[in-house]
Amino acid sequence: MNGIRRGHRWCGVAFLAAVVITSVSLAVGGPAWVVYLPLIPLAGLVLSGIVMFVGVYRSASGPRTRPVPRVHRWSAVLLVLGVLVTMVSFAVGGPEWVAYVPLLPLAGVAVSGVVMLVSPGRRAVAGARG
Question: Partner of 89 for a Cys bridge, out of 6, 22, 72, 94, CB 3.0 to 4.6 A?
Answer without folding.
Answer: 94
